[in-house]
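Structural prep section.
Before we set up the soaks we want a predicted structure of the protein with iron/sulfur cluster in place, mainly to decide which crystallisation condition to try first. Input record follows.
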Amino acid sequence: MSQVYKSLSIANPDTLSWSPLQKLTSAIGIAGLTILIAATFGVTFPNATAWLIASLGLMTVGVVSFSYVTYLQQPAGIKNNNIWHDRISSRGISAWVAGVAITAFYIVLYQYPQVLGLGSDGAANTGLVALFDPLSQWIKGVPASQWFVYGTLYTLAIIIFGIRYIWKYRHNKYQVLRTISVMFFQTGFAFLIPELMEGLNKSTYNKWFDKDMKNMWPLDYDFFFDWHWEGMISNGSIGLFMLILGIAMIFFISPLLTYLYGKRWYCSWVCGCGGLAETAGDPFRQLSDKSLKAWKIERWVIHLVLVFVTIMTIAVLYTQMGNNPEQYWLTRDMFAIGISILLLGVIGLVYYLKDKHPDLQQDAGKIIMGVLAVIVAILLINYFIGSGNAFFIDAYSLRSAYGFYIGAIFSGIIGVGFYPLMGSRVWCRYGCPMAGLLGLQQKFFSRFRITTNGGQCISCGNCSTYCEMGIDVRSYAQKGQNIVRASCVGCGVCAAVCPRGVLRLENGSDDIYEKTLDIRVDGVRLSE
Ligand code: SF4
Ligand code: SF4
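Run finished without errors. Recording the tokens verbatim:
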């Protein structure tokens, strides 16, 4: 007997239930996850290699076959069916359970790794960490750590949910290419290369430095820390190469690429945080808050984190130097003068750009005064304090505070744990200093923008709904106004889900900021 729908709605108001195949494939994935959970709770598996292969294999088969059934057997095109009906993607009970479970995992990972089975004082690993020992031994010849477990699961999540993402958005070349890109950078640069290099350099195993070539300051906030610096300097040509590359990334490569392509080159094509948000976090992108209040909070918080990391880094560098030119090639005096010149350069740049950008014109005075105040503070500290402290605060307290509150709690625990409740880019939107820095450049000094063909917009709101950064894209599209927003990560999903082809991601000419003030539809300028 056919089912009778009493609702007059054109769309089916009932929650669609999963097909038997979808249920079967999700059960396979959950079976793999269950092995990891059992190991976390202390179950010892007799043959770790076999159980690890079974666990990772079942999770891979489960996610990939579920995605195959759900997306690849359907016509190409965006499928967001049922997204506000499913409990997991609409802040239902399962979303809260997932949020609490992921948050708990991060707390244990950062604060209590022994709960995961990490052996201390030379003792053998147990539990979850012991399950990964065979893989760690095979890759680098040492037992696993909690970070090896995390890195493996993180990379696997990006790969298997990346396959899901590619099949879901397969009609859109931009989405396919950038997903392959984040999978490649995570697997190669963030996981395999650093792990293999540690395996090949066991003699210098303790002289650790970050071997992830795509990671850079300020996201890599410990780049300028003394132990990291010494690790690079004392590790021969490869250490020196990483040092030069790290500095070149900060001052040359990143500014150039952001000028040419916007911050998307990093946030949506390279970064591991963005990679996880785009792949495993895709079912939650619609949960981002689109309100003006959220936008205000976002601008305050992300720029405060950027200021925090800058002050912390300057303070750390300052304390690593001395006053005697015979002992230090860079003395505190020289450092203070160098930073002051750099900041004066920033003032010059703001002054130069203010005529081009009306927004900047309004804020130029405040920015210049703020930067001048920092310069004066540095000079005063250098000449009248001269102690191991900078900014009147012990630099080591400052750096451990940053590492704990921002590096661990914000980026890990909140950044990923809150995916099912606040959307997939909580960290990128509110906390990442790299996104803050690249965003400022994107807004004032980049060729990237999203162009809108307002006449075609039917105000369906798909673009705003699926913007993970909480940008109300529709409001720009309705006015036919091009979009240049500091927070836009250039994921391109707004363009991919638009049924009318209104939006295009472009790298235009230098006058793009000027163009964003033009409303194509009626010729009225927004600034007037
Ligand atoms: S505006 Fe579009 S491209 Fe930018 S973050 Fe939002 S969805 Fe992605
Ligand atoms: S998705 Fe396209 S048609 Fe719908 S509101 Fe956005 S720009 Fe307009």
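Observations: Residues 15-74+112-204 form one domain.
Flagged for discussion at group meeting.
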